[in-house]
Amino acid sequence: MDLTARRATRLASGQLRSSPITAIVEDDNETAKQAEQIQHLEASIEALREDGRDDVAALAERRDLERGQTKQDRKRRQQKTFELEVRIQEREAAISQLTGLAERLGWKVAETRRRRQRMEAIRQYEEAITEHSRDAERSTAEAARYRKEVELLWQEQREEEDGAEVDEGEGFAVVDSTSAEPAPS
Predict the structure, then answer these.
(1) Torsion-angle region of residue 14: left (phi > 0), alpha (psi -120 to 50) or beta?
(2) Of the candidates 105, 147, 124, the residue with the CA atom closest to the CA atom of residue 19
(3) Among 14, 24, 138, 176, which is 20 to 30 Å from 157 by CA?
(4) What's the rounded Cα separation, in Å, for the pair 37 and 104?
(5) For residue 32, how many C-alpha atoms fall within 13 Å in the half-sphere facing its CB?
(6) In the chain, what are the domain boundaries?
(7) Which residues of 88-100 are buried (b: 16+ CB within 10 A; e: fewer)?
(8) At what angle do helices 29-66 and 71-169 cross, to 10 degrees?
């Protein structure tokens, strides 16, 4: 196992320090995949940084050796130094690119979480609306039943009042609502 793979393994197992982005882990498959991608990217970033540190150390060592070397050796070492500098720059560019990708994935995970929370809130509000609608329908049905009862009671009252007026006008007294007897003279 080469040095880069060992570092990536140590980062993935938690033996190396990691950024707050790796703390993002969700039960949701999509989010878990994104979090796994972030961890993989961070492992790659850390491995690149470690390799970069090795290259920087090698570069410093080469510069120390360049002092006091022959012209031919110096040219060879300068070429190697240039190659090391190019590799360092390429690694820094790759680290920057991977860091940007990890940050975008982190934002995606956070947006997925916000979207899921919003959908849950919408679902809860819809359930509450449905329940209140059922309650309102029951209340409306009850109110209609009560209105009908009141209407029937008013109708009975009017009929009773109309019947009493007719009975009094003909000289009858109302004993009860079912029978009328002649009034005493």
Answers:
(1) left
(2) 105
(3) 138
(4) 11
(5) 4
(6) 3-139, 143-182
(7) beebeeebeebee
(8) 160
Q: Which two tokens stand for residue 40?
A: 């993989």
**Selection from 66, 88, 85 nearest residue 77 by Cα:** 66
The answer to whether the beta carbons of residues 40 and 11 sit under 8 Å apart is no
* Identity of the residue numbered 150: V
Q: Which residue has the tokens 């007294």?
A: 173
Query: What is the spatial distance between Cα 42 and Cα 34, in angstroms, rounded to a whole number?
Result: 12
Q: Alpha carbon of 28 to those of 22, 67, 117: distances in Å? A: 16, 59, 12
| Residue of 149, 151, 154 lying closest to 162 (CA atoms) | 154
Q: 15-40, pLDDT tens digit by residue?
A: 545 444 444 443 456 666 777 788 88
Contact 105, 38 (CB under 8 A): yes
* Segments in the chain below pLDDT 70: 1-32, 65-70, 164-185
